[in-house]
Every structure is written in C-alpha cells, then in structure tokens.
Amino acid sequence: MDIRILLLILVPLGTAFLIPFIDLINAKLRRFFVLLGILLESYLIISIIINNFQQLKNGEFFLQYYLGGWHPPLGITLAMDALSLVFAVITALSLFLIVIYSIGYIGHHEGKYYVLYFLIAAASMGAILTADMFNIYVFIEMLTITSGALIGFKRTQEASAAAIKYLIYNVLAGLLFFLGVLIIYFNLGTLNMADISQNFASLESGIQLFISAIFLTAILIKMGIFPFLFWLPKSYDTAPSPVTAVLSGVLSKVYIYIFIRIFWTVIGFETLEALNLNVLLLDLALLSSFFGHVFALQSNNIKRLLGYSSIGHIGMITAVIMLNTEAGFYGGLLHIISHMFMKAGLFVACGYLLQYTRSHAYRDFKGVGIRNRSVFIAFIALLLSMIGMPPLLGFASKWYVLMAFLEARSYFGAFIVIFGSLTAVIYYLRYIAKGFEEVKLTEDDLKEEIYSRPLLSVLYREKIVSFITYAYTAIIVGFGLGFRFFDLPLRMSIESLMNVERYIELVLGG
Amino acid sequence: MNKLMKKIMISVVLTGVAFALYQNFSLMPEYQGLNEGLSNYIIKSGLNDTGSLNLITAVLYDYRAFDSLGESTVIFGAVSGIVLILSRKMLPVSSKGLSFIVKRALGIMTPFIALFGFYVITHGHLTPGGGFQGGVILAAISIIFSIVYGSAFDYRRYSPQTKTLFETGGALTFLGLGLAGILMEGAFLQNLGFLTAETGTLISAGSIPYINIGVGFKVGAGLAIIFYSMIQKTFEEDF
Amino acid sequence: MAVLEIILVIFLVFSALMAVYFDEELISIIFLSIFSLVLTALYLLHKAADVALAEAVIGAGLNTAIFMSAISQIRHGDSD
Amino acid sequence: MFNNLIFIILFMLGFYALIMKTNLIKNVIGLNLMEAAVFFWVIAFSDIGGEVAIHKMGEEVTKFNDPVPQALTLTGIVIGASTAALLLTLIIELNKFSGTIDRDQLEGLND
C-alpha cells in the first residue's frame, strides 16, 4: 500500500476538477495552479524513484494500492513494476514539458484546454498503473474523449472532420475492447489482470483465439498499425502543436504500453505463439512501417509527414517487440523513449516555426529557417536524430533495433529499419532545403499574412516556446551521448516483463 | 460502376465478419453463473460488506467505485470538450415556447419529476437506480423547460456558472468522499464505516448514498450544460 | 414469457432496420428512440432493472433530445 | 444461440450504417446501434434465469443474476452517451463551416 501511486492519478484529476472553480474565482490564478499541479506530479515521481532506488537496483521494485480496501481479485488494484515505472517517468516528463509549452502557446479558451489536458494526464497515468482490465477500458475511453475534443480545438472545418474521424475509429476500438473484457469475464469470472493471466491457459484454444483477435483489433486501431492507420495523419495535422505533441508523445506510447501489458502479462506470449498470431503481427507491423515511410515520401504537409513517419516508427517498435527476445525489448523500449522525445520535440518546434506561415504545406515552408535561425537549427538536430545520426539519441535506439532484428535473423525487419532511415533522409532534406530558401517579403505581405492566419496560432510568449524546443534538443543530444543512462531501468523493466509469474504472485499475494 | 463494386466488396466483407463472429460466439459455453470468483462472492456477502440492498449499486460505488469515478470523469471531459467546441458568446434569446395549457401542466408536473429524480438518486442502494439515472432525470427537467417555456427561461434561472458549480461540486464530492476513505478507513474510496446504519433504511450503506448524490448533481448539471451548448446556435441565427 | 420475448425481439430488429434504412434523419432518430424503448423492455425481461432504467433515461430520453437538437441546426445542401 | 444471432444482426446493421451510409448522423446512429448490440448481448448472456440482483427485506432469494456485467454495462452506456454527444457536437461544428454532413461531399471539400 503505497499512496503515492494513487496520488499520481489523483493529482491531475483533482487539478482538472478544480480548474473550473479557479476560473470562477480569478482566472489569472489558473496558470499558477496548473504549474503547481504538474510540479506536484513530478515531485511524486521523483520521490518514488529516490525512495525505492535500492529495490530498483536489486530488481525487487514493486508497489501496489488496493482501492476501496478490497484485496485482489475482488476490487481494483493499482500496481507499479519497473516497466510501469519507466513509462510513468517518461510520460510525466513529456507532460511536464508540454504543459510549460502550452502556457506559451495556447491563448484562447485556456480553462477548458487545461481541464482536458489534465484529464489526459490522469487517464494516461491510470492506464499505465492499473492492474484491472475494465479499469483500462474506462481510462482508454477517457483518453479518447479528451483527445478527440482537443483535436477539434482549432474549430475549423478540417479540425472537426479529423476529430470526427478520430472519434469514430477510436470509439469502435473501445467498443471491441469492452466486448473482449466481458468475454474474458464470462469465461474466467474475474477482471484482475494477474488473475486472468493465471487462468488464461486453461481456456479452449478457440476462445483464446477469439479473445486475442478482439483485443488485437482494438489495440491495432488505437496504435495506428497498417489496416487501420487512416485516422492518424489527419488528426496529427489539424490539432494544435502541443496537442499533437501529446498525441504522438504520450498517447501512442500509452497504447503501446497497454499492448505490451495485455499480450505479455495477461494473454501471454506463449498463447500468441501457439495460435500463430505472432508471425502475422510481426509482418503486419513491418508492412505498416513500410507504408508509413512510403506515404511520408509523397506527403506535402510537414505535420502530416511527421504523422506518417510516426506510423512508420510505431510499426517498427511493435515489430521489434514482437520478436520476444531480450535484445528486441531493449531496442524497442529504448526506441519508445527516444521516439517520444524526438517526435514531441519536432511537433513542438513546428508550432514555433509555422507561426508565420499560412498553412503547413510544403510551399509555405519557404524561408522558415531564415526567419527563426536558432530554432530551425534545433529542428534540424531533431530531424537528424529521427534519421539516426550518430551522436544523437535516435542513432543509439535505431542501432539496437537493427541489432535485434539481425540477431533474430529477421532480415525483412532489418531492411525496414534501413529503408526507413534512407527515405527519411530524402523527405526531411527536402524540407530543410526549402526552409533555407530565400524569400522576398515586404512589410505589407508579412502583415497580411499575420492577419490572415487563424487567431488560435498566435504565440503570446515566444520565449517559453523556443525554450522548450531547445530543452527537447538538449535531451536528444545529452541522452544521445549518455544513452547508457537508460541501461539500468531498461534491464529492470525487461526483467519484470519477462517474469510474468513474479507479477502474478506480487499482485495476488502481496 | 465503381460504386457498385465497392458496395459488393463491402457486403462480402460484412458477411464474412458476421459469419466469423457467429462462429466464434457459438464457441462460448452456456453461462451458468460462476461458482467461484467475483460474482459469487458479491452475491454471497455483498449485503454484509456494503449494507446496500442493490448489489449493482454495491458493485458500482463500493467494489469498483474507481471505475465510477472514471466514468463521471468521462462525462466531465465530454462536457468540457463540448463547451470548448461550441462556446459562443451569444445569449440564447428564445422563441415563446408552447401554449399556455402546456406551460401550466408542466408547472404542476415539474415538482413530481424532480421528486422522482431525487428518489432515484437517494434510493440507489435500495431500489433500481442511482446517481447516473437520477442525474439524467434531473437534466431532463431542464430539457423539458427549454422546450416548453422557450430556451431562455431555464437559462436565466440557472446560469451556466451555477451549472458548472453544481457539476464540479458533484465531482469534488466524489473525490472528497474518496479522500475521506483514506483518512478514516485507510484506503481510497473505502466505504465509511461510521455512516452505516441498519440495512434497508435510507441512511444506510455507508458513503454510497452520498456518492450517489454527488454523482447525481454532477451528471444532471453536466448533461444540462451539454444540451444548452448544443441548442445555442439556433438562436444565434434567429437574430 | 418466451412469446413476449420473441415479439419484442422482432420489434427490436425491425426498428433497428428502419433506423438504418430511412435516409431522413428525423425518422431514423425516432426509430432509434423506439429501439431504445424496446431494448428497455427486453432488459426488464432479462432481470436487469438498473440497466433498463439507464437505457430508458439515456437511450430513449437524453439521446433523442441531443440528436434532435443536433439535426435542428444542421443545414443541408448550401455549401459556402 | 438465439441471443447471439440477434447480437450479430444488430451489430452488422450498425456496422453497415457506419461504413456504407455517407450521412454522418447516420454513422453516429450506426455506432449507437453497435453499442446497443454489445450491451444487449452482455445482458442477455448473463441472464441465468435468476432474480434481479437486489435483496428484498425479509425475503431470502437463492438465485440472483450476475450483478457485475450489469454494472459494467451501465458504465458502458453512460460512456457511449457522452461519446455520442461529443460526436454530434463536432458534426454541428463541421456543418457550420461546410454546410453539409455528407461524407462524399466533405472529401471533395477537404483535400
């Protein structure tokens, strides 16, 4: 019973509930309050790490909380092992950086924006920490609704259309998830993840296949893997930059976490292997990665391009995790971390760079680099990291992914990694070149452009926005030099991931 | 031609999906209730554990109360999103509403509808119903008012600020009862033992009725806000 | 009991079919509301009182009101 | 068996409306039908011929219907209603700009 892991969910939730009150009292206090909430959240994470550092080192780290005092399998249990800790830390760090960025970026409807933002924070923390299947469903729906509303934040035709598409796909996925949870309940009579995991092997193989297929469909839609990727680029394009950074930096990683939890801890990889689903999934993920990079090549819009490249990277991560080897997990988890920082950083930088352009299209990218030289250099550094240039974090993670594929003799996978890097060189260089193209603008042209753009993209505090971009670049460069820093947490989380029996024992017995 | 091909292809896919689903569902063994596990325990000792006659309420607000907190948070998020997307500064100036007779009749009926709503909320642990259902009934009063009296009537009496206050108040009640559970009993959302009275009376079942009241206000105010945000634009055009 | 259930199920499928079949949104919504009411009766037959109450107030009451208020402000045909 | 068939008919009707109808409101109706199909199946499947899961004072009932799926379904219904409201809101907002809710016409307008 460690109350801090409960507070990790309750602090953002309480902040979201209190913001309308603060608005009624004095709207100027809101920003202070938002900062207080996110700082408290970071403090909780840091104190969990510091207090349990010794256990973390010995591989014994495990915290849990029984909600309502009901011990499992009766009530809902929150559980945190090393894998959840890694995801919680990177999620909290991303949320922290993006909140500060939002303070500089969002100038309209701030109250509702922060309410939805903190609900996303609470829901992603909840989805990471909970050890109960139905609770995951509730948090997934929370993520869907809040992020769907935020995609429509700009209130233009494209934004509404993208949000509708996003919501329809994701509500469908949520419905399938609900069906899957209920079928598990009808067969096993429990909702606790550890309890299900213990008894799942005793089911008939037909029902095992059915449940796996339903969860697979639901989660593949959520992650944007090949047959169901069509909602993703549009919603990435039309959402405001901080929201896109949350979507690609936090949400997709939370869904990958849920994917790992369900298919390793709950259903079990042996079951997947017995049903021959793992080969299918591996090929599907690689195909998705291939298509993502190919679509990115023909895209003429920087944010949509980054969305397609996200599809490529998430497909690659899923594929390398599906290898189910230690090297595969190491590369996959490292690439999750690095992709989280790189993509969020790129979207954050885009929010700054595209403030003076009419649209996100390629032709409007002209001269962007000359006008904001230092931020554009940071942007280029992030792009090079995406490609995989040696001193940066992207190189380290891609190297491990490549090694994992070669070790497992999955040459198609290795080909996809290299293919992704090569195409990325082509499509990013185009934009870098365009950014440095000279543009002759008179004062009047500039004025006209400023007045023609939608009001919401006006930056109020440019300094904060550019500072966060530099912070992301610093993270990429710093951790790229010292990527050994992630060695201990990754080893711990792989150990806790592979050792399912220990998880079951700790959740049910502790 | 292209459209016809698309239609045929999708029909084939739909039939395939339907057939696959049917095959898989027929694999499911007939459900006979479970002799062990969650439901068996709840049916056997749910009444003793929680003091709530209605076992569904016991599951919703005691065993799995955290889910209900998440669920009301979903409504909270939906309300925030809808208000964000549809926020317009235009005050809805109304049509005149329906005829005098309807207005009088509604005037007589309204207290009874409200009473029924409060009954459903407060008797959640004794009879079918609870915070969610009762909250929707309370929101329905607001909706009926806007239809019968014209939309400005309800809007002037209960401003959006009041509704927001009710909504966040309800949510914070839920959260506060959960925190009280930590302080008094030792776990978040644990049933408050000192509130328990004789089973079957109105003030029994620990904190369940109070959570119900909080959820009822939250849901009622939230859904009323959703409805009012959605009808606003019509009046903008009437000007 | 069984006869009542079969009649209700036939009504249920019929109203769902009609809700999908008609192109006019208003008629669809009315059939959706009827669908919810029939579903409420079926829930009662299956001894799920709480769910029946929820379906009655949310499905037949609130959803209809929200759908109606949505279609009341949707313009057709004039794209600008 | 009977309930499975109804579930599949309703689910496929909803899926048909979601995929084939170009009207966005009809798509939301389809989504609602699919949700209702799932919830109906859950309730019908968990019905084992017992009583409503509510104790009555002074009466001993031996066989109850399972209360847990009903509680979960209740959660699902409420979540479904709020998603439907959000979707309709976005449709209103979309219609304000484009003047149409037809998916085919919107494809032409967007890109």
From TrEMBL, chain A:
PANTHER family: NA(+)_H(+) ANTIPORTER SUBUNIT D1, NADH DEHYDROGENASE
Record-linked Pfam families: Proton_antipo_M
Keywords associated with the record: Cell membrane, Membrane, Transmembrane, Transmembrane helix
Entries under InterPro entries matching the protein: CPA3_Na-H_Antiporter_D (IPR050586), NADH_UbQ_OxRdtase (IPR003918), ND/Mrp_TM (IPR001750)
Subcellular location per the Swiss-Prot or TrEMBL entry: Cell membrane; Membrane
Entry's family note: Belongs to the CPA3 antiporters (TC 2.A.63) subunit D family.
GO cellular component: plasma membrane
Transmembrane stretches, start-end: 6-25, 32-54, 74-101, 113-130, 136-154, 166-186, 206-232, 244-267, 279-298, 305-323, 329-354, 375-396, 408-429, 464-486
Residues in NADH:quinone oxidoreductase/Mrp antiporter transmembrane domain copies: 132-421
GO molecular function: NADH dehydrogenase (ubiquinone) activity
Natural source organism: Halanaerobium saccharolyticum
Protein name listed in UniProt: Multicomponent Na+:H+ antiporter subunit D
From TrEMBL, chain B:
Residue span, MrpA C-terminal/MbhE domain: 9-93
First-listed, main subcellular location of the protein, grouped into a coarse class: membrane
TM region positions: 69-86, 106-126, 132-153, 165-188, 208-231
Keyword Transmembrane helix: yes
Highest rank taxon of the organism: Bacteria
Entry keyword Membrane: yes
One GO cellular component term: plasma membrane
InterPro entries: CPA3_antiporter_subunitB, MnhB, MrpA_C/MbhE
Protein name listed in UniProt: Multicomponent Na+:H+ antiporter subunit B
From TrEMBL, chain C:
Record flagged with keyword Membrane: yes
Top-level taxon of origin: Bacteria
Domain MrpA C-terminal/MbhD: 10-75
Record keywords: Cell membrane, Membrane, Transmembrane, Transmembrane helix
InterPro entries: MrpA_C/MbhD (IPR025383)
Membrane topology: Multi-pass membrane protein
Annotated transmembrane regions: 6-22, 29-46, 52-71
Cellular compartments annotated: Cell membrane
GO cellular component terms listed in the entry, alphabetical order: plasma membrane
Protein name: Putative MnhB-related membrane protein
Record organism: Halanaerobium saccharolyticum
UniProtKB/TrEMBL annotation, chain D:
Full protein name: Multicomponent Na+:H+ antiporter subunit C
Membrane topology: Multi-pass membrane protein
Chief localisation class: membrane
Family, similarity comment: Belongs to the CPA3 antiporters (TC 2.A.63) subunit C family.
Transmembrane segments: 6-24, 36-54, 74-94
Localisation per UniProt entry: Cell membrane
One GO CC annotation: plasma membrane
UniProt keywords, alphabetically: Cell membrane, Membrane, Transmembrane, Transmembrane helix
Keyword Transmembrane appears in the UniProt entry: yes
InterPro entries: CPA3_antiporter_subunitC, NUOK/Mnh_C1-like
Coiled coil regions, renumbered to chain: none
Native source species: Halanaerobium saccharolyticum
Pfam families: Oxidored_q2 (PF00420)
